[in-house]
C-alpha cells in the first residue's frame, strides 16, 4: 500500500471513520458519510467529498462471509484508504461490562480537533493503552473545567433513576454516530456532568460504532449494580441495524 506524504500524515490534518459491517453491509453509513464530509468543510481541508459509491465499490471488491467486520476509511489530501479488519468484541464483553478509569489527561474543549475524528488521535490511543495495562477497558476524560467529556474511543451515558444523561457537545467531545442514534430515540438530557454525579449514577453505558452499547461494570472502585437500561437499549439497537443497516436517525 503506497501512501503519499501530505499534511494528513505530516501534521495530522486528515480524517477517519470506523464503521461496523454487519453481513457485509455498513451500519449507519449515511451518518458516517455526513460526519466526515462535514469535517472536511469545517476544517477547511483540501479533500474531495467521500461518496457512498466509493464505499460500496470497495466492499463489493472485498467480500467476506463473516457476520461482523470493521471497515476503516482514512482520508487526507493525497490519500484515500479503505481497510477491513477483524471484529473482536464478544458476548462475554457485554455480559461482564466494561471497567473504567479516569484519565489524568484533560480534553481541550477550545480546540476544533476535539470535535472531529482526525488523525490527531495520539492522546486517545496512549491513554487507552495505559488503562489496559492497569486492568481497565476504557479511560474517561475530563475537560479543563473538570467536567466529564467522553472515553478514549466512546461516548458516555449516565442513568439516574429513569433519566438518561450525556455530556453536552460543548464540554469537548466527538458527536458519535451511535450517540446521535440514542439521542434521536430516547429522552436524553444533555448537560454538564461532574465526577460526583458520575459516581452517584445508577448505571453507566458507553457507546461507539463498533460495540454499539456497552454496559459498564465499574468506574475504578465504584461498582454499578444495574445494567437494566443499558441492555434494553442494546437490544433495540441491534434489532434496528439487523433490520436495516442503513437505518436513518
From TrEMBL:
Its EC number is 4.-.-.-. The keyword Lyase applies. It is an enzyme of class 4 (lyase). GO terms for molecular function: lyase activity. Its cofactor is pyridoxal 5'-phosphate. Keywords: Lyase, Pyridoxal phosphate. GO terms for cellular component: cytosol. It holds the Pfam family Aminotran_4. The keyword Lyase applies. InterPro entries: Aminotrans_IV (IPR001544), Aminotrans_IV_CS (IPR018300), Aminotransferase-like (IPR036038), BCAT-like_C (IPR043132), BCAT-like_N (IPR043131), Class-IV_PLP-Dep_Aminotrnsfr (IPR050571). It comes from the Bacteria. SUPFAM superfamilies: D-aminoacid aminotransferase-like PLP-dependent enzymes (SSF56752). One of its GO terms (biological process) is carboxylic acid biosynthetic process. Belongs to the class-IV pyridoxal-phosphate-dependent aminotransferase family. This is 4-amino-4-deoxychorismate lyase. It comes from Fusobacterium nucleatum subsp. nucleatum (strain ATCC 25586 / DSM 15643 / BCRC 10681 / CIP 101130 / JCM 8532 / KCTC 2640 / LMG 13131 / VPI 4355).
